[in-house]
Design goal:
- By secondary structure, the protein is an all-beta fold.
- It has a single domain, classed as YVTN repeat-like/Quinoprotein amine dehydrogenase (Methylamine Dehydrogenase, Chain H, 7 Propeller).
- Helix content is 0%, strand content 55%.
- The protein contains no helices and 30 strands.
- The chain has a 4-stranded antiparallel beta sheet with strand order 3-2-1-30, with no helix packed on it. A 4-stranded antiparallel beta sheet has the order 4-5-8-9, with no helix packed on it.
- This is Surface layer protein.
- It comes from Streptomyces mashuensis.
């Protein structure tokens, strides 16, 4: 008899950001029971769990609004104890602003945070010491709006996607310098293979504007060779991909934005999104599943058995059995405006 994907998850916790909450909610990973909620600074976006310090980091990008349509960029990161569910500290990284993407090198105790540029400096990545919780460096990425950031398992190479810039910034984390630009249409989420050989990049980016001039680029996931910083393949999708996640079992998860015709709008209206699953090794399309409106973040359990897809416009989290591609549950995340569920983090129980 096949073991339930829920088995053995007692004490594990799923943390979920509500962008207009503004909150982080905690759910029991075995039962989906709501355990509590922490109020945080406005416009929280992404989450990152540090298992060494047992702390959650949350980036708040703006005072209100969103990318290119906001009332000002924030400079803060909130540090949360997921066990006691309380705010430990608010870390100010000023003059850096617009923090968004988070990537952890637990072995070296480094947290990498993508930040937006200004009139006198391009966007970049701030390096934070996770023990002192203070910035210790910055790496320029030569683009105004680096958004998502991911690193290889060795902690030597990082990749920043750039919404409008036609490249992914490749940086040497040991030297702290930009080393290459992988040419792609403006990009969204990304994931890096464990051996660092490939980066999987969602491109083109979701412009949320009228039709572009000329033939639009094919939607999907660009496969970037880490050695040459060149695109070597395309995993095609029907809709624009925003989040990308690679599980511990080698499944590549893509969250597709889908639109339906609407006579009242040139852009159409949001339709249920799609979780599309590929094999990272073979690039084979393994299946798909309908999810909420505008999927924005994806994560998975450490064993790669369960996937979690947050959709910001429906403010839901779909919990998916990644072996059968069946929905196990859907969580409704509280919100105060149009934007709801965003960042996700899986927090294993204390050893």
């Amino acid at each position: 008899m096949q073991q339930s994907p829920r088995a053995g998850r007692q004490g594990d916790v799923l943390a979920v950001v509500s962008q207009t909450g503004p909150t982080v909610s905690f759910f029991d990973a075995a039962s989906d029971q709501h355990l509590g909620t922490v109020d945080i600074l406005a416009e929280p976006h992404e989450l990152c769990f540090d298992p060494t310090q047992r702390l959650l980091w949350c980036a708040s990008a703006y005072h209100s609004g969103y990318y290119h349509a906001n009332s000002g960029r924030r400079t803060q990161l909130t540090v949360i104890d997921p066990d006691t569910r309380r705010v430990v500290e608010v870390v100010d990284i000023a003059p850096e602003h617009g923090p968004h993407g988070l990537a952890l090198d637990a072995a070296r105790g480094r947290l990498y945070v993508s930040v937006e540029g200004s009139a006198d400096r391009p966007g970049g990545v701030v390096v934070i010491d996770t023990q002192t919780r203070r910035p210790i460096g910055r790496i320029d990425t030569d683009a105004p709006g680096p958004h998502w950031f991911a690193i290889d398992a060795a902690g030597t190479t990082g990749y920043a996607t750039n919404k409008e810039a036609p490249f992914v910034s490749v940086v040497d984390l040991e030297k702290g310098v930009l080393t290459a630009k992988a040419e792609v249409p403006g990009s969204e989420g990304l994931a890096v293979s464990p051996d660092g050989a490939y980066a999987y990049v969602a491109a083109p980016y979701a412009a949320f504007s009228g039709p572009a001039d000329g033939e639009p680029p094919a939607t999907g996931i660009r496969v970037v060779d880490g050695r040459t910083a060149s695109v070597t393949g395309l995993l095609p999708t029907d809709g624009t991909v925003i989040p990308v996640h690679l599980t511990s079992t080698g499944k590549l998860l893509a969250g597709e934005l889908r639109m339906a015709p609407d006579p009242a709008s040139e852009l159409g209206r949001h339709a249920p999104g799609r979780l599309t699953v590929f094999s990272a090794a073979t690039h084979e399309r393994l299946g798909e599943l309908e999810v909420g409106l505008c999927p924005l973040t994806i994560t998975s359990s450490p064993d790669g058995r369960i996937g979690y897809v947050s959709s910001i416009l429906s403010s839901t989290v779909d919990i998916v059995d990644l072996e059968t591609l069946e929905r196990l549950a859907r969580l409704d995340i509280p919100r105060r405006g149009e934007s709801g569920a965003h960042g996700l983090a899986y927090v294993p129980r204390p050893a």
